[in-house]
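Hey everyone, long-time lurker, first post.

I ran two proteins through the pipeline my lab uses and got sequence/structure pairs for each. Pasting them in order. The first:
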Amino acid sequence: MSKETQPIQAPFTIRAHHLYSYAELLRHPNPRDQAKEAIIAILENGLKVPGPASDDFDEWAGVKYVEDVLGTTPQQTVAFEDVQVKAFEGFLNLPDNFSVEITREKDIICNGCAVGNHCQPIFDGDIEDLIKFARSMRKVIGKRIKDPTKISTTLGVVKAVLLSPDWNPEPSKIS
């Protein structure tokens, strides 16, 4: 079975910096359109090539990032899009009581990358996003998270938090 046709297993894992894609999906619930928007954002990132002396230098900016995520062939890009659609459809269609883990680890979105080397390092922005989510979750459902490095909850709670005015729509710098 290819990675885009395997059923989604519990828990549904979300890498923290991908929460913003799911929040956007809740506002505009069209998985195919959201996947295409992700491809456009990746291609736009490919146009950014800051020099090493720049404050915002990112080794994953530019063509290297595009090839790592989308690959070098149309087939790899289509496969990436299909995995994104599966992730987004699962998020929208799984029951609200489906278990979810928000983490710093790779998730279904990462698994759609053609190569995925940029997904390997632990990204510091994920910790910031986990803390933001934990704070918003506390305001929305009143539950305090003792260890925000891995948040276990349900899909319904994740959706409620991402739709709440307490969720900060500004992502950390994504790598």
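...and the second, right after it:
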Amino acid sequence: MTRFILLTVFTSLIMSFAYVFDNITPQNVLQLFPICETSSSLGQKCKYSSRDGKPNNFLNVCCDGSENITFLGNTISIDRPNEWNYSFTVRNKLFFINEIDFTDKAMNGGSYHTKTKYFAVLVGGKIFLSESSSEHL
């Protein structure tokens, strides 16, 4: 009887998480990724240029419409030829926990090239990040 009650409580908790947390996809990363909260070059630009308020989405920070946006499986790449490339790879890990790899690369002869991994959850239309690793390539 005790096992049955514990199993019922555990199942109820898991089911309630399913209603609160959403799945992160490459498509909704463009709309919801909190770039202004990151230490990337674009995050720094965002913090400096939008002191009065945060932009609505990633594309409002990086792009003016002249970029090439490519979806390939669980990866999205945003490229401005001869200037820069940003890419996101999204992996669903366990239940509602996701991993996002964000690559920030200068394509204009600069040496800036970083790859940062984040653990991420999507709750109520907002992505919450926790940086797990970062490397300069």
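Reply from user beta_strand_b:
Welcome! Quick read of the second one: The helical segments are 2-20, 26-32, 41-49, 58-62. The mean pLDDT is 79.
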